[in-house]
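Structure ticket #2291
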Amino acid sequence: MSQDKTVTIDGNQAAATVAHLTNEVIAIYPITPASPMGEWADEWSSRQQPNLWGTVPDIIEMQSEAGAAGTIHGALQTGSLATTFTASQGLLLMIPNMFKIAGELTPAVFHVAARSVAAQALSIFGDHSDVMAVRSTGFALLASNSPQEAMDFSLIAQAATLESRIPIVHFFDGFRTSHEVAKVKSIDVSIMKQLINQEFVTAHRLRALSPAHPVLRGSSQNPDVFFQARESVNSYYMAMPGIVQKVMDEFATLTGRYYKLFDYVGADDAERIIILMGSGAETAHETVDYLISQGEKVGLIKVRLFRPLNSAALIDAIPTTVNKIAVLDRTKEPGSDGEPLYKDVITILAQHHFSGKSGREKSKFSSMPKVIGGRYGLSSKEFTPAMIKSIFDELGKEKSKNHFTIGINDDVTHTSLEYDTDFMVEDSDTYEAIFFGLGSDGTVGANKNTIKIIGSQTDNYAQGYFVYDSKKAGGLTVSHLRFGEDPIRSPYFINRANFVACHQFEFLETQDVFRHIEPRGTFLLNVPYSTEETWDKLPLKIQEQIIEKELKVYV
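Resolution: structure written out below.
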């Protein structure tokens, strides 16, 4: 691979590509939506594809995620480079081993397709409730926002964990990023070898348990020493954010892709900003660019390294002109007076403003910015530019609602913000197509091939996202394909389609297939009738919409 080579793959494959090349033991147990990472690694090892050091990684499938984590813990203690892939309840089953791995300062990366933890019901879809449940384990938490970042941060995490000795949960939004097919720039093996410092790999190997140099591990401690020993890791956690930023800078030198612990996007003199992490940050980025073009003074901070949280880096990222901040969490903690990222931002700002704990003699701000918090996107609930516009509008009010929800109608406790569903920022130069299919009828597979062909055989940027419910086979599938000359930052459903295809005739009666098609758009229908008799078989409502919207129809 050359440095500039592009591949059209999803976030799972992007992360697995790097994980397989930078590890020797991969212990797995399948769980949606992280399963494809293990499947890819298993396939590559079965084909005898080597890692960076010329050996084929051992793939070990256990009987539960707890077993996978135990296997990783054991492999790490032998000096192996080891990883796993998981999500949701699977990650929770790993918690006991995670405490041990982190407590023993053992470098490792767990790749997590972040997914809802079952509460009032099970959900296979994405939010951050699982990764928020492991905040206290001692693992660092590094967030990717897109398939490109899933690949980049997999490598950055591996390099940073080896140097810092702090294990890392590298996570990205389940289904939204893990299953989104996009055109990404691959990373050359030579670049990986440059970024992974062999000295730190050797140091990890020398710490392995061995009869040649015996050490005491897995001991029991009493009140006389446990507290002191627990605090002894502080210097490692204090150093880690600097190490991650250094690795990000080295990565930028090698690839031209620049990242910071907290990336700011927006107006230099922004007065209102949003802070969040995950795929929603891409939607916010797109919306902020649009609002700035309309004269708004707004901005966005993308959180990369959530643990350990570097307060000075966050303060540095916030423009001095900011007076109102909305912090968005993709999780709910019932009974808490705010979700995790919101409370962290409040604490950092208060410490900075009132006690100078971020290392400054005086506050960066003339007065402490007002901060409100909100929840969005639980279980992959849609998060659109219209919702982000609503949040900025709320910040502009004299009295802004705190602890709000966005994207639902909470008619019980009235937490939700209203938003204009007609507000859109999508690029008119991007071609957008929607396909309706039946689970297992081949629609999703065909569309994955289509978007990969467009991505690999043309200069266009491409994105494919495939919606299906937990029934999977036999349920409705909706494929959303975008492509165009400009980068695509739209991790949400298509609202203005140039092209709509319906692969099951009966959907004309049950689905609003024309809801998002543009006037004079193209409609493709799979029919069991001849062309001549098709028109008379169409429902009257469909005939009226075809005429009203002046659609081009193919059967």
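Closing remark: Residues 234-255 form the longest helix (22 residues).
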